[in-house]
Amino acid sequence: MSSVIELLKSHRSIRKFTDQAIPPELFKDIVQAGQAAATSSFLQGATIVRVTEAEKRQKIAELAGGQAYVASAAEFMVLCADLKRAGNYCAQYGKSFEGDYTEQFIIATVDVALMAQNMVTAAESEGLGICYIGGIRNNPGPVSELLELPKGVYPVFGLCLGYPDQDPEVKPRLPVNVILKQEVYNEEGDQTAIAEYDERIREYYRTRSGGGHGISWSEQVSTLLAEKSRPHMKGFLEGQGFKFR
Amino acid sequence: MSSVIELLKSHRSIRKFTDQAIPPELFKDIVQAGQAAATSSFLQGATIVRVTEAEKRQKIAELAGGQAYVASAAEFMVLCADLKRAGNYCAQYGKSFEGDYTEQFIIATVDVALMAQNMVTAAESEGLGICYIGGIRNNPGPVSELLELPKGVYPVFGLCLGYPDQDPEVKPRLPVNVILKQEVYNEEGDQTAIAEYDERIREYYRTRSGGGHGISWSEQVSTLLAEKSRPHMKGFLEGQGFKFR
């Protein structure tokens, strides 16, 4: 196994950081490593808004559901799907903008995620810790106002970077055979494998530092899908120009 | 700069592969490195369908717009956003399934992309080359039928893996200052920077092996956004149960 594969397998989210700043050259390297990820149709449909102002950080921390590390991490940024930058050129080349299809929403969203995951790997390879902040989608409108995001741009998630001040365990993932299918989608054996995995996750929550709720994977994730999850997202996105045509 | 950052920055898509197979243990490591990526709300909403049957590979190559390397790469798989696996447990815990909101679509799609990019980094760290195949969204219905994808599952993109039989250049990315904003979204200076970048891209296409069309970045991407891009996606996704509520 390469050391890179070991690095990837050792990922865990960090929610407590030291005060140590990230050197500017390293920060730039991390962003450029992000940019080097594949991008669909060469769109480069991701934009990063780096937030350093303490008051703005504090507001976003609250808007994200009270996540203090948004304010305290060495770096916090919002990763945005951006169809505006490319869309600006439609008029210049005498074309009309048609970038509000579901497909283009997917392309830009995937571009952001690929870039972000490269940034995460780059950061972790230098001893930094990271935490994705999906919680900004609790209040995407106010977050977008704070960052002055124009139409054609939406905040997909935030990202905290900093030097770790904690050392949590790696959280076990589903057995490979459950997520890897051969030739066709087939659920044979999944229920048994997931039942065993559920036990491992209960144990993980029971024993990890900080204690835990002892809830299984299947119970947790079924809750997510039994919720009207962030039902404001559709209207918010349409307002930003993503029309899901 | 860490060797990992150098590795990330050296990415380019590979579209010509040798016959060499990928050792099964390495393939499994690559998948597990993918699984180790962050996952929103612990959903683990990504499923891989690995395709080895030659005839099926050939069909998917055609459905993706005639991309021969889909058939010839050592490994080809389709990465799917999967709300079914978790959704199965709603009934078991006495809850009704509400997993058809735009938010849950985003969560699962991002999960797939984060996993995929970790797989790509793992693969490239072992000397493999990769190519994402967004072209499967040309014909998502027929691809889903071939793979027997049930409701709650959709194919986000394909991924080819194999040992490279070509050595293309790295494609220059937008200047960092264009994609990295400070505090707010601000386009100051972008037009000038993009004009210079456009020249670099024209030059890249003119000089790269295989020749090229000499088209600028802005012209290329404005074309993408002036198209009714894969207008079937919305209807296809709704049919798979992603209702964009």
What structural keywords apply?
globular, 5 strands, 11 helices, homodimer, alpha+beta, NADH Oxidase, 245 residues
Structural summary, described in words:
Two copies of one chain form a homodimer. Helix content of chain A is about 45%, strand content about 15%. The radius of gyration of chain A is 20 Å and the shape is globular. Chain A has about 240 residues and is an alpha+beta fold. In chain A, helix 2 (about 25-35) crosses helix 6 (about 100-125). The first copy, chain A, has helices spanning about 5-10, 25-35, 55-65, 70, 85-90, 100-125, 140-145, 175-180, 190-205, 215-225, 235-240, and strands spanning about 45-50, 75-80, 130-135, 155-160, 180. Chain A has eleven helices and five strands; from the N terminus they run H-H-E-H-H-E-H-H-E-H-E-H-E-H-H-H. At the A-B interface, helix 1, helix 2, strand 1, helix 5 and helix 6 of A face helix 1, helix 2, strand 1, helix 5 and helix 6 of B. Strand 5 of chain A pairs parallel with strand 1 (about 45-50) of chain B.
Task: Give the arrangement of secondary structure elements.
Two copies of one chain form a homodimer.
Chain A: H1 3-9, H2 24-35, E1 46-51, H3 54-63, H4 69-72, E2 75-82, H5 84-92, H6 102-125, E3 129-133, H7 140-146, E4 153-162, H8 176-179, E5 180-182, H9 190-207, H10 217-225, H11 233-239
Antiparallel strand pairs in A: 1-2, 2-4, 3-4
Helix pairs in contact in A: 2-6
